[in-house]
């Protein structure tokens, strides 16, 4: 099973010794999006002293990156990254914007502030489980499409039908690999011939 990701974008804010920290959690598809998010945060908050960041990407969190943005080495990017890794998340970036309040927090204080506020933003974002999945592709006569769609939806599936100009509709159905044999059997009973294309991830709603 692939690592989960966050369910939505979220933010959190804290003030420590007059320094203000604002964290935002974002869904990403690759680490290439991280500098884009950082630039946007700098434009939105030109008066901030630091925009520190970290991100993890890949089905199993294979790629990661962090940046202290001028804070002492290891006091900002690393604790943000640890907050992501500690929740076993991937395809997520967290930015923490800091407005310096005039009081130095020390190494320990910075680590606690950056890691803590990143964790709050991630917890507010929720999580989505993701499982290996396949897409079933086939065609159905337009006359039979409503019946077949109803049967699939009654079984808990979410089929997508594309009605073209001819007499057939294209059917696409994404199914968790664990439920693939059952879905294929149902489609066979309905008279639908499909081909399976694997290597996908299906996101499951939070419980």
The major β-sheet equals: 5 strands, antiparallel
CATH architecture of the largest domain: 2-Layer Sandwich
Number of strands: 9
CATH superfamily of the largest domain, by name, is: Impact, N-terminal domain
Output mean pLDDT.
94
Throw out a few tags for this protein.
alpha+beta, Impact_N, 5-stranded antiparallel β-sheet, single chain, 2 domains, Ribosomal Protein S5, domain 2, UPF0029_Impact_CS, 207 residues, 5 helices, Ribosomal_Su5_D2-typ_SF, 4-stranded antiparallel β-sheet, Alpha-Beta Plaits
Describe this structure in a few short sentences.
By secondary structure, the protein is α+β, with helices and mostly antiparallel strands. It is 30% helix and 36% strand.
Topology:
Elements: E1 10-16, E2 19-27, H1 33-44, E3 50-57, E4 63-67, H2 77-86, E5 92-99, H3 106-125, E6 129-141, H4 145-154, E7 160-163, E8 168-176, H5 180-189, E9 194-204
Antiparallel strand pairs: 1-2, 2-5, 3-4, 3-5, 6-8, 6-9, 7-8
């Amino acid at each position: 099973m692939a690592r989960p990701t966050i369910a939505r974008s979220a933010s959190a804010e804290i003030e420590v010794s007059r320094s203000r920290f604002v964290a935002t959690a974002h869904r990403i598809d690759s680490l290439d999006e991280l500098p884009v998010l950082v630039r946007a945060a700098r434009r939105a908050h030109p008066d901030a002293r630091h925009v520190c960041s970290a991100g993890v990407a890949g089905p199993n969190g294979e790629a990661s990156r962090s940046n202290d943005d001028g804070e002492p080495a290891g006091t900002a990017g690393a604790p943000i990254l640890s907050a992501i890794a500690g929740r076993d998340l991937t395809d997520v970036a967290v930015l923490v914007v800091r407005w310096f309040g005039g009081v130095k927090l020390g190494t320990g204080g910075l680590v606690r502030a950056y890691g803590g506020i990143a964790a709050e933003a991630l917890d507010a974002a929720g999580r989505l489980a993701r499982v290996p999945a396949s897409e079933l592709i086939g065609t159905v006569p337009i006359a039979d499409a409503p019946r077949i769609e109803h049967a699939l939806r009654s079984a808990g599936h979410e089929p997508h039908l594309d009605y073209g100009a001819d007499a057939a509709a294209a059917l696409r159905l994404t199914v968790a690999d664990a439920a693939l044999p059952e879905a294929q059997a149902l489609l066979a009973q309905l008279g639908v011939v499909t081909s399976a294309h694997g290597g996908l991830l299906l996101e499951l709603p939070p419980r």
